[in-house]
Amino acid sequence: SVSVTLRAGMIPLCLVWVANAADLSAQWTTCGSGTLLENGDFSVWSDGKPQQWEVEPSSASESVTQASGSGAVVTATTMTSLVMVQSVAAGPGHYVAAVEATFEVADCVGLDNCYGFLMLEACPDVQCTTKTTDFRAPTRGPMTQLLPYQYVFTASGTKEWHLLEISAPAGTSAVRVGWSMATTGTATLHSVCMNKADPYDAVVWAMDRYYSHFGRAASLDWTAAVAAARPDPAVTGRPLAEAVAALTEQLEDPHTYVRYGTEDILGYVQGPAVNMKSELLPLAGATRVPQDGSIGATAATEVGGKQYAYVVIGSLQQPQYWSGSSGFPNVVYETMTASGIQGVILDLRGNQGGQEDLASMISGQFTDQSVVYAQHDYRAGVSHDSFSDRADRTLFPGSSMFGASFQHYQGKVAVLLGPGCMSSCEAMAMQLQALAAREPARFRSFGAATRGASGNPAQIDLSDDTGVVFSTWRAFTSAGTALEGVGVAPDEAVAWPESPTEDVIIAAAASWLGETGGTTADPGGGSTTTTTTADGDTTTAAETTGETGGTTTLDGGTASGAWGQAGPGLVCLVLGVGLR
User: Fold this and answer.
1) What is the pLDDT of residues 57-103, one digit of tens each?
2) Distance of CA 471 to the CA centre of its chain
3) Are 378 and 387 in contact (CB under 8 A)?
4) What whole-number distance in Å separates Cα of residue 327 and Cα of residue 403?
5) In the chain, how many H helices and how many E strands?
6) CA distances from 526 to 265, 531, 560 (A)
7) Quick check: 429 and 441 in contact, CB under 8 A?
8) Per-residue b/e over 489-505, b at no fewer than 16 CB within 10 Å?
9) Bridge pairing between strands 93-105 and 413-417
10) 215 near 385, Cβ under 8 Å?
11) d(CA 392, CA 213)
12) Where are the beta strands (DSSP E) in 396-478?
C-alpha cells in the first residue's frame, strides 16, 4: 500500500508507479473542483451523448449510453474499437488524468488484444490523432514517450480508480483525454478528471522516477535539496528555470541541466581540462566538412619520412553531413585508404558527444564482424536504485551500413583518449576497445581516461521556453564495468605537459604505428598483412584484392580513390567539441 501526504493543490503524480486499485480509491474519492475537464462525471447529456465529449464509434455495433445516476456506459458487440475523447486547450507542462471505471469483457477467447484503455495525449492542435501504442509496451525516448500516457484495463469487472500522466512538450496547444476499447464488452466510466501539475513538482517527480545517476550523487541529500531549491508557486519564466537549475546542478551531471529560451543552458556546465592544444595539430591545408569544419577536416602531412593524414572530427552531430559521397564517413574512408597512408590515429580527446549511430559509421569501417561493445539499463521503478535488465549494444561491420562490397580497413589503429571525451564519444571509445579485445595487435589507445559521463537524456518541458534535461540510463562496458564517473582508460597512459611544444600523445601513437606490423598496399589495391606475434614470430596473410580506378563510395556513388586499399602512412581523426 501507499501512504501519500498531499499539500493543497498538489497532484499525486507519484501514484502512477506505485498505485493499485485500493491505493487510488483511497486518494481519489471524487475528481474535485480543480479538474480541467468539463462534464467529467457524465451527468449532462444531449442528443444521446455526454456534453463536451466526442464519441467516435467505428461501427454501428458500438454505443455510449447514460448510466443510472451518472456515468457513461460504453458497449461494443464486435471486435472493433471505439474512442470517446475530450480535448482541452492547454500549453506545455505536466498533466495528470484519473478515471474511475468498471470494465467487463464479453468474449475474448484465444485473443491477445482484448483491452480497454484510458488515453492522455499532448497535441499540436485540438485535432490530434489518437495514439495506437498501448501501455503494455512503453517505449523509451522523449519524455512524452517515457511517461505512461495510457493505462490498460483488464476485465476485472470491479470499480477501480486509475491514474496516468503526460509531459506536454513545447508547442503543445491542446491536451486530450479519452477512453478506447479493442474488444467486445462493456465499460462504465463513472468519473474522469485531469489536472496540471506544479512545474517544480513535475520535475522532481519525473527525476525521482527516471533519473539514473542518484548512485553517483550518493552524498547528496536529495530530499533536503528539493526543499531548499523550491521556488514560490507563482514563479515563472527565467526565475523558475534558475530555481530548477539550482537543484539539478547539485547532481554534477553534464547530461542534466535546464534549457531556457533558444540558447541559455543553466546548471552544471563545468568541464575537465582537455589533454590537447589545437595549435599543435597538423591541420595546414585541411579539407573541411562542411566549409566551417564544424563536423571535421582532413589534412595530409609528413613526419619522419612517413605520409600522415590528419582528420579532425568537430562533433558527432548534424547527420546531414554524414551521408552521401561528400559525407564525413566517406571522406574519412578515402583519407585512410589513400595511397601512401600507413596506420590510423583516432583522436577522441575533444569530443563531447552527439549521436552514437554516427560514431558507428566510423568504427564500423575497421571490422567485418559484429561485436558487442557496451551495455545499458534504465531506471525502472520508484526506488532510486531500481533499474531494468541490462541490454547489449552492438557495433555492426561497415558492410551492413555501406553495402556488401565494402572492404573494411585492416591496418593498425591508434586511439587517443582524454577527459574531454564524453557521452557518445565514450561509446565510440568502447566500440574501439571492443575491437581491440578481439584484435589486440591492431588497436591500441593512448592518453588519459575519458570523462565517464553517459546519460541518454530525456527532456521535460515546463513551458514553451523552459525545458529540463536529465539522464535516464547507466552505461557499462561490454564486460559490465560501470562507465559513469570512471570513463574508458587507455592502454598506455601519456601525461600531458603543463606547457607542451608538441603533441606528445600523437607522438606516442605514431611511435607505436611505426613498429613492426601493420598493413601496406601496392598501387593496384592488393595488400599484404604482416603480424608480429607475442613470441616475436611473423606471419604473412594471403594477398587480398581491392578495386581501383572509378570505385563505389560509401553511399554507392563513384570516386577516383581505391576502394578498401591500405598503404603506408598515418591517419589522425580528432573529435572536437560537440553538443550535449
Assistant:
1) 766 667 889 998 788 888 877 655 667 888 888 888 888 777 787 77
2) 9
3) yes
4) 16
5) 11, 32
6) 52, 17, 16
7) no
8) bbbeebebeeeeeebbb
9) unpaired
10) yes
11) 19
12) 413-417, 443-447, 458-461, 466-470, 473-477
Contacts of residue 269, Cβ cutoff 8 Å, sequence gap at least 6: 254, 257
Strands 570-575 and 306-313, sheet pairing: parallel
Q: Is 164 helix (H, G, I), strand (E, B) or coil?
A: strand
- List, in order, residues 6 or more apart from 535 with CB less than 8 Å away: none
Residue-wise burial string across 283-303, b where 16 or more C-beta atoms lie within 10 A, e elsewhere? beebebbeeebbbbbbbbbee
Which three three-digit cell numbers place residue 404?
Answer: 556488401
If one counts every other C-beta atom within 10 angstroms of the C-beta of residue 384, the result is: 18
Beta bridge partners of 35: none
pLDDT classification of 370: cutoffs 50, 70, 90: very high
Give the position of cell 501512504: 3
pLDDT above 90 covers a percentage of the chain that reads 34
Who's near 406: CB < 8 A, 6+ residues apart?
A: 397, 398, 399, 554, 564
C-alpha cell at 545: 584484392
- Please identify which residue in the block is written with the cell numbers 600523437: 506
Backbone angles phi, psi at 449, to 5 degrees: -65, 150
SS3 per residue for 53-99: CEEEECCCCEEEEECCCCCEEEEECCCCCEEEEEEEECCCEEEEEEE
Q: Report d(CA 371, CA 395) in Å as an integer.
A: 5
* φ and ψ at residue 144, rounded to 5 degrees: -65, -25
Question: Cell numbers at residue 550, please?
Answer: 572509378
Could you tell me if residue 162 is left (phi over 0), alpha (psi between -120 and 50 degrees) or otherwise beta? beta
Contact at 8 Å (CB) between 100 and 74? Answer: no
d(CA 307, CA 567): 10
**Strands in 251-355 per DSSP E:** 257-260, 264-266, 287-289, 296-303, 306-313, 344-347
Helices (H), 169-314: 199-210, 222-229, 237-248
Q: CA-to-CA distance for 298 and 288, rounded, in angstroms? A: 7
CA distances from 163 to 69, 95, 192, 291, 309 (A): 23, 11, 10, 52, 59
Cell of 91: 500549453
pLDDT tens digits, one per residue of 220-237:
999 999 999 999 999 999
Retrieve residue 384's grid coordinates: 532510486
